[in-house]
């Protein structure tokens, strides 16, 4: 028997106004919101913006909310003050490190958004996930300009060194620094048995990259790519919902 999907959360039933734009109060850039998103980060300046139209409606009381949404709004954990403080400190550090490279800064902020969304469904260290997302390419541009051979190895080494310096500056604990550096250092070589934090980083990065390419891929090939490219079932489900629905719509 097929599962009944709540019309309020099924994007097929959404109205045009359910996806809207908000101006960042810090820099004036435009930030796109889906009606059920609590907050997002501006991909230009990194400021956190709350959804002014957030309304979960029936999901707040419906007994099937978790099945419908993938999470229960009554149980959802909002960002703790510790997570928010760490993310804000790292965002500022990354902005300083990537001064003049808006493309990489935007990418890092978008990966952070996706990683934070994914990590709520896993038993992971938020500090590791947040630092991984923001620092995984923090010095990639410098390495690419310096080396003509073995780009991947040299980029990973230099990015790890810069990431470690930044994390020490914001007083992250040694255990978190070690885990983040290990994940960043072998980011492009992770196997299927990688840590959950590493899988979340991979899937968040893959999701962001696919966002700019999905409309050029045949829907059937896109489905096969999603099945192969993402490491977690949650990310595959979200990617199919977002990209394939848009591609065929």
Task: Using brief descriptors, characterize the structure shown.
single chain, 249 residues, mainly alpha, Hypothetical protein af1432, two-stranded antiparallel ribbon
Order of helices and strands: EEEEHHHHHHHHHH
The name CATH uses for the topology of the largest domain is: Hypothetical protein af1432
Reported for the largest beta sheet, the result is: 2 strands, antiparallel
Largest beta sheet: strand ordering: 1-2
Please provide the count of β strands: 4
Q: Quick one: overall form?
A: globular
What is the count of distinct domains? 2
Beta-strand fraction estimate: 5-15%
* First-to-last CA distance: 25 Å
- Based on the coordinates given, report the CATH architecture of the largest domain: Orthogonal Bundle
Q: Under the CATH scheme, which class of the largest domain?
A: Mainly Alpha
Mean pLDDT: 78
The CATH homologous superfamily of the largest domain is termed Hypothetical protein af1432
Rounded radius of gyration (Å): 19 Å
SS class: mainly alpha
Low-confidence runs: 147-151
Helical residues, percent: 40-55%
Number of helices, where a helix is a run of at least 4 consecutive DSSP H or I residues:
10
């Amino acid at each position: 028997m097929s599962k009944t999907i709540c019309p309020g959360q099924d994007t097929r039933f959404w109205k045009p106004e359910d996806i809207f734009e908000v101006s960042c109060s810090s820099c004036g850039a435009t930030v796109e919101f889906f009606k059920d998103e609590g907050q997002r980060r501006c991909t230009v300046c990194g400021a956190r913006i709350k959804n002014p139209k957030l309304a979960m409606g029936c999901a707040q009381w419906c007994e099937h909310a978790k099945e419908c949404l993938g999470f229960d709004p009554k149980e959802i954990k909002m960002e703790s003050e510790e997570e928010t403080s760490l993310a804000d400190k790292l965002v500022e550090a990354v902005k300083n490190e990537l001064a003049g490279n808006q493309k990489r800064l935007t990418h890092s902020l978008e990966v952070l958004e996706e990683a934070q969304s994914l990590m709520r469904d896993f038993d992971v260290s938020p500090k590791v996930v947040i630092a991984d997302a923001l620092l995984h390419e923090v010095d990639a541009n410098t390495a690419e300009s310096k080396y003509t051979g073995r780009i991947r190895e040299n980029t990973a080494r230099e990015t790890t060194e810069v990431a470690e310096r930044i994390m020490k500056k914001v007083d992250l604990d040694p255990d978190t620094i070690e885990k983040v550096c290990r994940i960043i250092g072998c980011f492009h070589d992770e196997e299927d048995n990688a840590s959950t934090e590493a899988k979340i980083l991979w899937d968040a990065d893959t999701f962001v990259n696919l966002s700019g390419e999905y409309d050029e891929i045949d829907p059937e090939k896109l489905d096969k790519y999603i099945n192969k490219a993402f490491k977690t079932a949650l990310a595959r489900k979200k990617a199919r919902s977002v990209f394939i629905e848009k591609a065929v719509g």
